[in-house]
């Protein structure tokens, strides 16, 4: 079994363990792909994010949940340094607006830790394997028959915050995220 798949299965097992410890908690999964990229310019890829919401950290429309993810990015115009995997974990702060029927719009922001499988992409020196993953976006939850779907647009950035002499980050200014909450 591929190492990435083993890590993903381990994360799923951890998330399901957390879910069973709190009757009100929920977990979910989302798939994300870039609609527009900026650095590097020919970047393509996807993200699979698993999330755990303990439903206990809520205050005046703000909610805190946690996500863990696997990302695969590649550059379509290169033969050398053309792909990398990223493993990430992060807390996510979400502000939910007033519910409109079955739809709840929201804003969210996240800063977390990530591990880059390579330190070079498209001839760019990313510095070190450790990077911060910054995500910000807006979207909506759609409740249908006790099921929740989410649709959102995010901006994503990876950078080591100058912890290394080299810090050529990765930036996706617009990504589409489609998710499902298991309850």
Can you walk through the features of this model?
This protein is mostly beta strands and 183 residues long. Helices cover 10% and strands 61% of the residues. An eight-stranded antiparallel β-barrel has the order 1-2-4-5-6-9-10-11. A hairpin with a 2-residue loop joins strand 9 and strand 10. The radius of gyration is 17 Å and the shape is elongated. It starts with a helix and ends with a strand.
In short:
By secondary structure, this protein is mainly β.
Q: Flag low-confidence runs.
A: 16-21
Derived from helix and strand composition plus strand pairing, the structural class reads: mainly beta
Could you give the count of β-strands? 11
Specify the helix fraction band: 10-25%
CATH fold name: Porin
For the record, the CATH architecture stands as Beta Barrel
Q: Tell me the β content.
A: over 45%
Give the neighbour order of strands across the main sheet: 1-2-4-5-6-9-10-11
CATH class membership: Mainly Beta
Give the terminus-to-terminus CA distance: 29 Å
The main pleated sheet reads as: 8 strands, antiparallel, barrel
Q: Average pLDDT, to the nearest integer? A: 87
Shape assignment: elongated
Instruction: Report the radius of gyration as a whole number of Å.
Output: 17 Å
Helix count, per DSSP?
1
SSE order:
HEEEEEEEEEEE
Instruction: Provide the domain count.
Output: 1
């Amino acid at each position: 079994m591929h190492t990435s798949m083993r890590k993903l299965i381990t994360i799923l097992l951890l998330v399901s363990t957390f879910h069973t410890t709190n009757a009100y908690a929920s977990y979910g999964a989302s798939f994300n792909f870039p609609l527009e990229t900026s650095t590097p310019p020919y970047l393509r890829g996807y993200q699979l994010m698993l999330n755990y919401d303990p439903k206990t950290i809520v205050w005046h429309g703000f909610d805190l949940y946690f996500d863990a993810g696997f990302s695969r990015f590649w550059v379509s115009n290169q033969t050398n340094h053309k792909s990398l995997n990223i493993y990430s974990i992060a807390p996510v702060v979400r502000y939910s607006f007033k519910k409109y029927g079955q739809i709840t719009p929201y804003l969210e922001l996240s800063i977390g830790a990530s591990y880059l499988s390579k330190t070079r992409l498209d001839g760019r020196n990313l510095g070190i394997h450790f990077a911060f993953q910054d995500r910000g976006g807006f979207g909506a939850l759609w409740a249908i028959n006790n099921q929740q779907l989410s649709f959102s647009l995010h901006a994503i950035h990876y950078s080591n915050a100058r912890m290394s002499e080299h810090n050529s980050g990765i930036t996706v200014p617009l990504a589409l995220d489609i998710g499902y909450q298991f309850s």
